[in-house]
Amino acid sequence: MIKSVFTGQRLFNFMLIYGALFFCGFQSVPKPPGDIILQDERIAITPKEFYIANVIDERQSRAALAWLVPAGANETSQAKLIPVDLKGGGFAAIKQFIEHNLPRNTALRPVIASLKKCIVTESALSGGGVEGHVSLVMSFDLEDRDDVPEGGLHLTDYNGNATYTRNAGQPQEIEPALRHVLENGFIYLNTWMNRQAATNIKLAKAVKVTFDDYREKAEGDSIYYSVSRPLTWNDFQSKIPNSRYDAEIYPSIGYDERNEVNNGVVDIYLTMKVCLPKSACWVKEESRNAYALNHEQRHFDIAKIAAEGFKQKISGEELPAGNFDGPINVEYLESYREMTNMQKLYDEETRHGSNESAQERWNGYIDKELKKFGVK
User: Digits of tens for pLDDT over the chain (376 positions)?
Assistant: First the structure.
């Protein structure tokens, strides 16, 4: 057993040393401010056009959210700012605040909220006061889904700022300013969505397509297909090339597109162009007869059939409001390919018009197709 005995001066010295250690170990030391608690408070809106499907952290700097003036600092001191975050982490606390306090109706449009910047910085004032600045930047995008282009669709951005003053040593006083800037971001989004829903093409919910045929007021080099305007030999204005064929034309199909948004519906107006240039049509003099002209007219008719087939495909398809041009382009290219293949088959089977029985069969087939589409 070890026994310690303190007597006289030695005991007195020990008590002095022990007392000094005790007071050194337990004296009051200024502590840094604790994390800021972001209070739950319902955002004063009920969205009718959107819900927040997700919140994403896209801040360049993910260090502490707030940089605060320490207690005891004044405007002439060079006190180092103290980093302070929200309780639970800056982004996690903000995301939780949004999820808890913004109504979420998944029957509405899904919007992604991206946090680009959120920072609080302070400076000391005279008399021990503190001035702080809150800066918040968020962007809002429609969520990537079947009727929205890959990667989503950008809607709008919010840049919010607030200034506050507080007493030194009371960091929780910055919470209301930060919370209100966050709330204002979603109030802004709600207002923007309500104003844009009826007329902004990005927010359209449905698509309606209307077709028309292009009609040129004063005919130029191009001939646009019309039952009342069949080809004549005067339309063949190109120089005659060195060719084994008797005549040749180059019909094509295309369309002009115009869009409007009315009450959340995209009205698409497609004006079809079935045309051929006179300057590319040619005929040998000895072949200017009604039979040869009919063969060339049938090439023009085939182009019209392809255009009507394109109309039929688009009319029977439910186009996505967020990406309607994609399917339209696909169907157009498919119709153009079908036209090219039919033109090739027509010439192969009729041997460019020299097989009269095959020409007669094609005449009947083409007339039947035109009648099916209401052209004849």
Answer: 333 333 344 333 433 333 443 334 433 334 455 688 999 999 999 999 999 999 999 999 888 899 988 877 766 667 788 899 999 999 999 999 999 999 999 999 999 999 999 999 998 888 778 899 999 999 999 997 655 555 578 999 999 999 998 887 666 678 999 999 999 999 999 999 999 999 999 999 999 999 999 988 889 999 999 999 999 999 999 999 999 999 999 999 999 999 999 999 999 999 999 999 999 999 999 999 999 999 999 999 999 999 999 999 999 999 998 889 999 999 999 999 999 999 999 999 999 999 999 999 999 999 999 999 999 7
In 243-289, which ranges are continuous DSSP H helix?
Answer: none
Cα–Cα distances in angstroms (integers) from residue 110 to residues 55, 106, 114, 159, 178, in the given order: 11, 7, 13, 21, 25
CATH architecture classification, 33-197: 3-Layer(aba) Sandwich (3.40)
Cα–Cα distances (Å) from 201 to 154, 259, 315, 321, in that order, read: 12, 9, 20, 8
**Distance separating alpha carbons of residues 204 and 207, to the nearest angstrom:** 8
Contacts of 216-219 with C-beta under 8 Å, sequence gap 24+, read: none
Per-domain boundaries in the chain: 33-197, 206-372
Segment 92-100 long-range contacts (CB within 8 Å, at least 24 positions apart): 93/38, 94/38, 94/55, 94/118, 94/182, 95/55, 95/57, 96/38, 97/38, 97/40, 97/179, 97/182, 98/52, 98/55, 98/182, 98/186, 99/52, 99/55, 100/40
Of the candidates 130, 52, 38, the one whose C-alpha atom is nearest the C-alpha of residue 93 is: 38
The structure tokens listed for 60 are 């360049």
Strands 50-57 and 129-142: unpaired
- Count CB-CB contacts under 10 A for residue 359: 20
51 by Cβ neighbours in 10 Å (0-12 / 13-18 / 19+) ranks as middle
Structural contact between residues 34 and 95, judged by C-beta atoms closer than 8 angstroms: no
